[in-house]
Amino acid sequence: MLRDIFLGFIRVHILYHASLSPVYGLELIEELESHGYHVSPGTMYPILQKLEQSGLLVSEKVNVEGKIRKYYSITEEGNNVLLESKKRIRELALEVLGEDL
């Protein structure tokens, strides 16, 4: 159950970073690890594919030093979902953390 909750946090985190600049899987894995999330490629890439299939991200293949890397950028719909997520996160944090903020 805890894994399901964290997967939601991870999706929001991905959308956030994709809103700043195009991102790729390994970069996101390392970013999330810096926040204490241990996400394997076997978890990350299906999440990215699902976000793309849902219309929240778009991908572009780029040749980087002879290797093809897939970069993901946020779509307008993804940005709308991110903005709504931020509102709900703020409201939840205020309620759950209250005076601890």
Q: What is the strand arrangement across the widest sheet? A: 1-2
The CATH homologous superfamily is named: Winged helix-like DNA-binding domain superfamily/Winged helix DNA-binding domain
Major β-sheet annotation: 2 strands, antiparallel
Alpha carbon gyration radius: 15 Å
The chain-level mean pLDDT equals 95
Helix/strand-derived category reads: alpha+beta
CATH classification class: Mainly Alpha
CATH-derived topology:
Arc Repressor Mutant, subunit A
What is the helix tally?
A: 4
N→C terminal distance: 26 Å
> Order of helices and strands, N to C?
HHHEEH
Describe the global form: globular
Proportion of beta-strand residues: 15-25%
Provide the number of structural domains.
Answer: 1
Number of strands: 2
CATH architecture: Orthogonal Bundle
Low confidence ranges: none
How much helical structure, as a percent, in the residues?
55-70%
Pfam family, one: PadR
Protein name: Putative transcriptional regulator
InterPro entries: Metal_resp_DNA-bind_regulator, Tscrpt_reg_PadR_N, WH-like_DNA-bd_sf, WH_DNA-bd_sf
Organism: Desulfoscipio gibsoniae DSM 7213
Q: What structural keywords apply?
A:
101 residues; Arc Repressor Mutant, subunit A; Metal_resp_DNA-bind_regulator
Textual characterization of the structure:
This is Putative transcriptional regulator. There is one protein chain. The chain has 101 residues and is an alpha+beta fold. The protein has one domain (1-97): Winged helix-like DNA-binding domain superfamily/Winged helix DNA-binding domain (Arc Repressor Mutant, subunit A, Orthogonal Bundle), CATH 1.10.10. Helices cover 62% and strands 16% of the residues. It has helices spanning 2-20, 25-33, 41-53, 76-97, and strands at 57-64, 67-74. A two-stranded antiparallel ribbon has the order 1-2. Helix 1 (2-20) packs across helix 4 (76-97). The protein is globular and about 50 Å long. The relative contact order is 0.15.
